[in-house]
Design goal:
The complex is a heterodimer. Chain A has a single domain (5-109), classed as Immunoglobulins (Immunoglobulin-like, Sandwich). Chain A contains no helices and eleven strands. Chain A has strands at residues 5-7, 10-13, 19-24, 31-37, 44-50, 53-56, 65-69, 75-79, 88-95, 104-105, 109-113. In chain A, the strands form two sheets. In chain A, strands 2, 4, 5, 6, 9, 10 and 11 form a seven-stranded mixed sheet that branches. Chain A has a four-stranded antiparallel sheet with strand order 1-3-8-7, with no helix packed on it. Chain A is globular. Chain B is mostly beta strands. Chain B has a single domain (3-113), classed as Immunoglobulins (Immunoglobulin-like). Chain B has strands at residues 3-5, 10-14, 19-21, 24-26, 31-38, 44-50, 56-58, 64-68, 73-78, 87-95, 102-104, 108-113. In chain B, strands 2, 5, 6, 10, 11 and 12 form a six-stranded mixed sheet that branches. A four-stranded antiparallel sheet of chain B has the order 3-9-8-7, with no helix packed on it. The termini of chain B are far apart. The model of chain B has no long low-confidence stretch (mean pLDDT 92). Classes of the chains: A mainly beta, B mainly beta. The interface between A and B is medium-sized, with 27 and 23 residues.
Chain lengths: 114, 114
Amino acid sequence: EAGVAQSPRYKIIEKRQSVAFWCNPISGHATLYWYQQILGQGPKLLIQFQNNGVVDDSQLPKDRFSAERLKGVDSTLKIQPAKLEDSAVYLCASSIDRVPYEQYFGPGTRLTVT
Amino acid sequence: AQSVAQPEDQVNVAEGNPLTVKCTYSVSGNPYLFWYVQYPNRGLQFLLKYITGDNLVKGSYGFEAEFNKSQTSFHLKKPSALVSDSALYFCAVRDQTNAGKSTFGDGTTLTVKP
């Protein structure tokens, strides 16, 4: 079974530029999560999709971050414009939409904003 | 708001000794609880979960965790540590709704010395 795929693995941009990350979840997983992991901290949930719908985006900085999940499969997370404090690893995870809900994580995208 | 606390940033044990990585949580209602492990340069991996039933749950690589409702704790344990267990461990809690939000702790670095 293929795991969660993410691209790119690394990205370096200057502040005020835009960037997009892509995620392809495990086949059949209805729930998709985007997390931000700053060095030394645990993953912080940015947005959670169930199929096409958003079930939680309370911690997504909506003035600069956006995310979509078309057709309930792939998802894209965008940052525009980027700030220095956005430097982090962006993790995508997926799970089935019922108990036991354990999440399967992709390798992450390490973003550096200079 | 739900939260997870991992009171120790670092745990050091000698190979062959038992290990404990501590986790306490706060959530409305009954929790689903998880442990994840992150090896260097690798993604987060699911280790074990508590959903319901026996308070002692067993997971991958010989790890187990004990759920204590009165103390709101979910400590990770292993009877005999291996050098290869050295990694970053995250505790996570999810509330028991279909669209429950997951909250992670900030992680504990486990170092097992030969």
